[in-house]
Amino acid sequence: MNNFKKVKLILFFVLFIFCIFFGCKQKKVIIEETPPISEQAIEKFTITQTNEGKLKMILEAESATINEETQIANLKLPIVKFYNSGDYASTLVTEKAKINMETYDIEGVGKCTIDTIDNERLQTMDLMYDASKELIYSNRDILITKLGQKIYGTSFHSDTKLDNIIIKDQRTVID
Question: What is the dihedral of CA 50, 46, 117, 141, to 10 degrees?
């Protein structure tokens, strides 16, 4: 019986060592390295777009962060001057914007204001500029102020001079 206790004690000790050795084994944690996002930060950012030697657009921003993989620049306080055949047409001012560096398409984020050479002012939120078609548009509410009139609408699209504008659900108030 004494031998039986010794065998039991040895088995218990072996089992205890076995549990400690295999139960406390740590798994290796594999940390995957994420590739860094290649970005550039630029202060006083400027882009000039021309077509056949004539100005189409000049964009100036306080700062820009450019993602080199997507070619999208996030702009802070941009001012965009639009030109038709080299002649000044209008100015877009917005709080933030994104520009596709390959296509020059612009997405104004937040409050956007366009002032034209004819003293018209368009105000909206989240405005888009399609550079290939030279069109601006928004699917948000708009307000246009010109010559003592206020024109309201639920969306619009137009050329950059606001000459060929189409306004959805247009309502005019004359002062």
Answer: 110
- The reply to whether 163 falls in a domain is yes
For residue 121, give the CATH number of its domain: 2.60.450.10
- Please list the residues that pair with 145 across neighbouring strands: 121, 150
DSSP letter string, 98-123 = EEETTT--EEEEEEEEEEETTS-EEE
Residues 74-133 have pLDDT tens digits of 999 999 999 998 899 999 999 999 999 999 999 999 999 999 999 999 999 999 999 999
Check: CB of residue 128 under 8 Å from CB of residue 105: yes
Count of domains observed in the chain: 1
Has residue 29 been placed in a domain?
no
Sign of the dihedral through C-alpha 154, 155, 158, 162: positive
Query: Could you tell me if residue 87 is inside a domain?
Result: yes
125: containing domain: 39-174
Question: What whole-number distance in Å separates Cα of residue 45 and Cα of residue 102?
Answer: 16
Inter-residue contact 89 to 69 (CB < 8 Å): no
